[in-house]
Amino acid sequence: MEILNGILTRRSVRKYTDEIIPQEKVEELIKYGMYAPSARNCQPWHFVLLNEREVFLKIEDFQPHTKMLKNAQWGIVVCGDDQLAHTPEYWSVDCAAVTQNILLAAHGMGLGAVWLGIYPRPERISAMKKLLELPPHVHAFSIISVGHPAQETPPPHPDRFLKERIHTKKW
Questions:
Q1: pTM of the model
Q2: With CB atoms 3.0 to 4.6 Å apart as the test, which of 39, 53, 145, 156 could cross-link to 90 if both were Cys?
Q3: What is residue 45's three-state secondary structure?
Q4: What confidence tens digit (pLDDT) does each residue in 49-88 have?
């Protein structure tokens, strides 16, 4: 898929078929994610791969907008590491970039994915840390639900480009 078209046509996919996705393919998604920019190229990310329904149901207890995980083949938890980050404030920005790369890679590979927020909600971060037994310096940022799309998702509304939001030299 041509990259600019991929950016324009990527959509959040929340319904999946039961077609299996091998772990190697998920690791390939993460590879593309790791090519995201990060502050001073510190790359302060880690990933936890999930594919057990029982765990997905536990996540739904503290993040109610994760119902689609029940039908996903994989959940990729993107985590930021204080010890690897340029400064403590940067890991979340770096994890946002890696999450977006993974979403675009999934689209480019014909998979469906959606970004499920953990950060900046303290109760979600804490619950995920406990569930996944993350070390104190590692924080869950997002979960990416991944599967084969069960339906065609329409392209984004063409009016997302809002010229009135562009300001030149001054507001």
A1: 0.96
A2: 39
A3: strand
A4: 999 999 999 999 999 999 999 999 999 999 999 999 999 8
- Contact by Cβ (8 Å): 49, 78: no
C-alpha 121, offset from chain centre: 16
**Distances from the Cα of 122 to the Cα of 63, 81, 104, 118, angstroms:** 11, 16, 27, 8
Rounded CA-CA distance 64/67 in Å is: 7
Q: pLDDT tens digits for 21-43?
A: 999 999 999 999 999 999 999 99
Class of domain 12-151: alpha beta
Q: What is the DSSP string of 100-167?
A: HHHHHHHHHTT-EEEEEE-TT-HHHHHHHHHHHT--TTEEEEEEEEEE-BSSPPPPPPGGG--GGG--
State the residue for tokens 């593309």.
32
pLDDT surpassing 80 at residue 159 = no
